[in-house]
Amino acid sequence: MPSVPSELIFTAGLAHLLVLLAAAMVPFKLDWRGALGPLPLLHRQMYVVYGGYIILSIVAFAVISIVHAPQLAGGDGLARAVCLYMAVFWGVRLGLQWVLAVKPYLTSTLDRLGYHALTMVFVFLTLTYTWAALGPSP
Q1: d(Cα 4, Cα 67) in Å, to the nearest integer?
Q2: pLDDT-based confidence at 2, cuts 50/70/90?
Q3: The Cα angle at residue 75 between residues 73 and 77, in degrees rounded to 5
Q4: Domain coordinates of the chain in residue numbers?
């Protein structure tokens, strides 16, 4: 198996931007304002903080992958460690696709298509970063 092409990592960086677009819709689609309203203020604040950290992580993954794709594909120790972290991050998120109770929220054909497209993006990200982390050196 050849080493991962840097263009694939660059493309994965762009794919993170698609995830961010989907993530921007979540608070509205799930009516966070109404659903979280009855919770104590600290609980609502924690949702915002945790969501912010996840968004910040995805932005960092995008920037690192777009700006440093050749280095990540280079296969040195730090590159492999960063790619392994991203592979685990997205692999866990991919696994959650099958356990999260999303069906009641997939009310339209567009919602269902978007959900399945997002699942494919998670597969792509997981496989790409796994290949970069564990594949052969260039």
Answers
A1: 16
A2: confident
A3: 135
A4: 6-134
Confidence of residue 133 (pLDDT cuts 50, 70, 90): very high
Separation between Cα atoms, residue 5 and residue 107, nearest integer Å: 38
User: Measuring CA to CA, which residue among 105, 84, 79 is closest to residue 6?
Assistant: 79
135 within 8 A of 73, measured Cβ to Cβ: no
| SS3 of residue 35 by DSSP | helix
pTM (predicted TM-score):
0.93
> Using one digit for the tens of pLDDT, what is the confidence trace for 100-116?
999 999 999 999 999 99
| CA atoms of 31 and 1, how far apart (whole Å) | 46
User: 3: which DSSP letter?
Assistant: P
